[in-house]
Fold this sequence. Notes:
Blueprint (H helix, E strand, L loop, with lengths): L11 H12 L8 H13 L4 H25 L2 H18 L3 E5 L3 E3 L12 E2 L4 E7 L10 E9 L8 E10 L9 E6 L3 E4 L2 E3 L9 E3 L2 E7 L14 E6 L5 E4 L5 E4 L52 H7 L1 E3 L3 H6 L6
Antiparallel strand pairs: 1-2, 1-14, 2-3, 4-5, 4-15, 5-6, 6-7, 7-8, 8-9, 10-11, 11-12, 12-13, 13-14
Helix pairs in contact: 1-2, 1-4, 2-3, 3-4
Amino acid sequence: MTISFEEHTITPLSINMRLVLLASCENTYGGILPWAKNSQHQIAQKSSIKSRKAAAVRLGSAIGFLREKYTATANKHGILFLQHMLPYVDILLATGECVCRGDPHCFAFDANRFNKKHDLHIPNICAYSLATDGCEDMSSFSYNIVAKFERVKHISSVKSFVSGLTIFYQPEHAGGNVQTTYINQGLEVTFRDLSVERHTLQEFPKEIEGHHFEMVPAVFSHPHDFSKGVTEVLSYTLPNGVNVQYDGIKAVKINNDALSSETPRCGICGNDDGIYDEQDILLGGNVDGIFCPGLPANGTRMEVAKNKEQFVNSWFIYSTGEMCDEICPFEFN
Length: 333
């Protein structure tokens, strides 16, 4: 199955056209226009990635509001607005967060979590890299966020979920010493040789060698970002500012806005350039069976994958147990 993407480019002209169309609706929805103008200003001024993403979310919210109203009223200005705006909705509603939740449904940094076409459904088991800066060389990285996928038990269909995370961090001054943090179901946290028991989590915030752990309220940018009933999640911020949140059940959210714009971004979470396209499905290091022949991915590292299955397979990192060993024998890990 070949994946094709429609290419959309946000230009100053297209932004201005949106504002003209918004202005035509000002008499009815006057509160939207100043909001959108501020968003346009932040995008056009080429401000920080974080500011541009926030501006895009605000403008995207305005679009969603108007789409709902004009679908109901069939106003001619609203129809015109939608004709110009709908191709850009996915771009604007991308929050810049990578999420894997459920059984599992993964959405890249650039994906719109309300668009089912952007859903990267992963039935795999074993461990895979979600986000890293080791794009050209898997062994050369400053951070690598790896998710452990396990099979859902007691059901006939083939489904899996994120049962835990392993986060590798390599400080520049560490001389190759990699710091490792394990976060498992039940929010069992181990940093190097230091075990943080679940009952001590309420005593956070806790900082260990620049690694910051705390319990924070669960923020649902999408209704299913975290597991049902979850009100708090473990928030782990690496020394480089990358933030990982895990609900201790099967949902993880990653935000790397703190990284420099020059920092490479790759993995299952994509390249985080603000546009969901084929550059978000670039192959990882497990190509042509080099690490696991049982997870085929044909091509060359950092080229566009032929399909989503091979894309996911290419980001295999290591085996996670007996079921994974059947697919990826130990001698290949």
